[in-house]
Amino acid sequence: MRPGRLDRLAVALAGLLGALATAGAALAAHGRTEGSFLAIAAAVAFVHAPALLALGLAGSALRARALPIGLMTLGTLLFSGDLASRALLGGRAFLNAAPTGGTLLILGWLSLVVLAALPARRA
């Protein structure tokens, strides 16, 4: 079965998060910024990049996977982006960006629980 747009998008987002996580971890390791914020931002991105990769590779076997893909992508960008902004720019991205991102990440993972309970699609 040929991968669809959503599959390719999820895989591309996984690659982007993986690259950003690697860059953030390298910056944190070399001590040029507030390392603890950057290290946490990188860790969160490192955790969610493989999750997005798996969702992209799941194909149509997992119904409504656009929901966890969207929640995890937006959540990671908000959470990690806010922490990276604090480390690199000295201030928050915007008020409540990290808590909002964290909430979206939790909802993304919980949406997988719901999707796993749905009946599988038939070919």
From TrEMBL:
Keyword annotations for this protein, in alphabetical order, are: Membrane, Signal, Transmembrane, Transmembrane helix
Q: Name one Pfam family in it.
A: DUF423
Write the signal peptide boundaries.
1-28
TM region(s), chain numbering:
38-57, 69-89, 101-120
* Name the UniProt record assigns to this protein: Uncharacterized membrane protein YgdD, TMEM256/DUF423 family
